[in-house]
Amino acid sequence: MALRINDTAPDFTADTTEGPISFHDWIGDGYAILFSHPKDFTPVCTTELGLMAGMQEEFSKRNAKIIGISVDPVDDHHRWKDDIKTVTGNTVGYPMIGDPEMKVAKLYDMLPASEVKVEGRTPADNQTVRTVFIVGPDKKVKLSLTYPMTTGRNFDEILRALDSIQLTIDHQVSTPANWKQGENVIVVPAVSDEDAKARFDGFDKVLPYLRTVKQPT
């Protein structure tokens, strides 16, 4: 069954390029960005892993760790790092999970449970392994996105979504379409006008059900 928002992210143990981990323990009291790729030494994913390496500091500022996964062994991941640096100029400093038996991919519904082929897999065999999960400190799934094979992922959007998730968890607000840091936000319907005035020092009532305020700090 597919994982849904607010489901508990399945725990697992796995070997990574940074040593063995237990996923929930590794997350700790922060957030995790778990992103998968179909196979090592593939062109689109080479650019993606390098981009994420360059963004690692931005995620760290938000108390979020990055971790990649592929249905390839850890030794292949280590060899792939050189290509990633050549293409993007960034060194991968986050762990990359080796999942050659596809246990984690199946646990997260990124490949059908019936898949049994391990050796000789091609990117086409792994085409469903193109998912991004944001997992919170409570170990719940906060976001999941799945991309087609030929479309490189927009990790600026993942960062933007993480900003929204963290803001809306801490305050009784939602974020509008294309919201970015510093822009106005929406008061959730559960907050009365009276409470909104007290909480946010006033608001702008655009519609009876749409009230905007400055982004809380």
List the keywords.
217 residues, alpha+beta, 5-stranded mixed beta sheet, 4-stranded antiparallel beta sheet, 11 strands, elongated
Description:
Helix 2 packs across helix 3. The mean pLDDT is 93. This protein has 217 residues and is α+β, with helices and mostly antiparallel strands. Helices cover 31% and strands 20% of the residues. It has six helices and eleven strands. The protein has a five-stranded mixed β-sheet.
The largest sheet has its strands arranged as 5-4-3-6-7
Report the C-alpha radius of gyration, rounded.
19 Å
Shape: elongated
Give the SSE order as H and E letters: EEHEHEHEHEEHEEHEE
Q: Helical amount among residues, as a percent range?
A: 25-40%
> Biggest β-sheet, characterized?
5 strands, mixed
* Count of beta strands: 11
Detail the topology: elements first, then pairings:
Elements: E1 13-14, E2 21-22, H1 23-27, E3 31-36, H2 43-61, E4 64-70, H3 74-88, E5 96-98, H4 103-107, E6 131-135, E7 141-146, H5 155-170, E8 173-174, E9 185-187, H6 193-200, E10 204-207, E11 210-213
What would a concise description of this structure say?
The protein is an alpha+beta fold. The protein has six helices and eleven strands.
